[in-house]
Amino acid sequence: MANKIGRVLWCVCWWLLFRPSPRIMFRWRVLVLRCFGATVTARSRIDPTVRIWAPWNLVVGRDSSIGHHVDVYNVATITIGDHATVSQYSYLCAASHDLADPTMRLVTSPIRIGDAAWVCAKAFVGPGVTVHQGAVVGACGVVTKDVPEWMIVAGNPAREIRKREIQS
Predict the structure, then answer these.
(1) Contact 31/51 with Cβ under 8 angstroms?
(2) What contacts 148, CB < 8 A, 6 or more positions away?
């Protein structure tokens, strides 16, 4: 029951305080999220159009950003590391249904996006997935398994493309 009340209150605050805030008011949105139990650093950049199911299940690191129209379905905890980016229209989905159960009960599993990782535009990251440090999920990629460190994956289902190399 407490979860449902929290969700209703969050919905009202999302519509009244979060969503209408001007794009440049990142710190305001961080404050609103923190009021609902999110662990978000002051230097996080979260767009006003981001849909967050349960702020109390959200952890966002330093200098990380969540782009416009990202859907964060965090029935279980979703953690986004430092210097990570989740680009526009992506979907982070921490829940699914047990297809063997006749009632198709909800099954949840946390998602982790590592430090310096990038989830590109319109990508889908499924329940229980870890996108490890420095990894990249290509645009429109569908990730249902962990992505190794500094690996670029793309496609549906996502496949390894090559190692990511940083040039100085």
Answers:
(1) no
(2) 132, 135, 160
Q: Determine the 3-state secondary structure of 5 from DSSP.
A: helix
Query: What would the pLDDT profile of 6-64 be if each residue is shown by its tens digit?
Result: 999 999 999 999 999 999 999 999 999 999 999 999 999 999 999 999 999 999 999 99
CATH number of the domain located at residue range(s) 2-163 in this protein: 2.160.10.10
Separation CA 72–CA 78 (nearest Å): 8
**Cα–Cα separations (whole angstroms), residue 65 to 70, 107, 161:** 11, 27, 24
Residue type (1 letter), 144: T
User: Residue-wise over 39-49: b if at least 16 C-beta within 10 A, else e?
Assistant: bbeebbbbbbb
Domain ranges of the chain: 2-163
Tokens 């569908």 -> residue: 142
Calpha distance 29→115 (Å, rounded):
22
Token digits for 96?
């699914």
